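Lab notebook, bench 4. The sequencing result for the construct came back, and we need a structural model before the next group meeting so we can plan mutations. Quick request posted to the team channel:

Model the 3D structure of this chain.
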Amino acid sequence: MTERIIDLADNTASLHVRDGLLVIARRDEDEVRVPLGEIAVVVASNPYLRFTQAVLSGLPEHGASLVICNTRHLPVAMLMPLDNHTTQAERFAAQASASLPTKKRAWQTIVRTKITAQARLLQELHGNDGGLSTLAERVRSGDSDNLEAQASQRYWPRLFGDPTFRRRRDGEDQNRLLNYGYAVLRAAVARAICGAGLHPGLGIHHHNRYDAFCLADDLIEPYRPLVDREVARIVAQHGSAVAVDRETKPRLLALLTNRYPSDGEERMLFDILSATASSLAAVFLKKKRDLLISEI
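Done. Here's the predicted structure in C-alpha cell form:
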C-alpha cells in the first residue's frame, strides 16, 4: 500500500472528505484528491488551513497521523489513531503490567542499538566512531551506567565537526532541522505503536505526566541517526544557519518513504517501525523475551 506524506506549508487550503478521499481545495487551483487509506502523515504547516471534522476523524480512522506545526514550521502537536487493533484491550493490559526487568531489558536493547547506529554514522561520515562501538557493547540492563548520555557527549561535536555544538530544542542553528525531523519521525513511530495495539503514552523508560507519547519517545531512539545523517548532509552543503523551508523539509520528510535494507530486503521505514512495535508487543505478551530492532 502506498504511504504518502502530505506537507501543507505554502498555500491557504480547505480540507474535507468526499467518498473516502481527502480533498485539498485551494483558491484558483484544481482540487487535490488523495485516498485516505494511502496517507501516512499529514503535516499542517500553514497557519490558514481549515479542516472539517470528517478530516480530523477520517485520518486516524485510516491509520494516518496529523502533525500540527507552529508559525516557525516546527511540529507542536499530533493527532493519532487510538483504536485500530483487534486485541487492543489485551495488549494495553499486558503493556501496563509489564515487569520492571522486562522493560529494563527492552531499554538496554534500544540504547545499545542507538549507540551502535551513532557509531556507524560517525564512521561513515568521518572515518572514526569516537569509541561509541565500545560503549555500545558495555550497555547493561536498563542502561544503569547511563551510557546513552556518555555517547551523546561524544557524538554531537563529532557529528558536525563542531566542538561547540550542543543539542538544544531552542537552538537557532541546525537544531531546528533536528527538531523538525525528529517530530515527524516521532509521529511515524507513534503511528506504528498504535498499529501494533499498544498505547503510545505507556513508556518503558520515558515517564512524564505531561507527555502522551512516552513509548514513542522510547522507540524513536534507535532511528534518530536517520535524521542526523540527513541534517549533517544539509549542514555540510548550506551551513548551520540553514532554515526549515521548502528545500530542506522535503529531504527530511523523504526519510519516511525511503527504502532501507532490513532482514535481507529493501523495506520502507513504516514497515520497519511497525515490525519494531510488533516485536515489543510480543515481549509484553510474553511471546518473546527480547525486543528485535532492525539496524538500518
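The chain has ten helices and ten strands.
Will bring this to the meeting.
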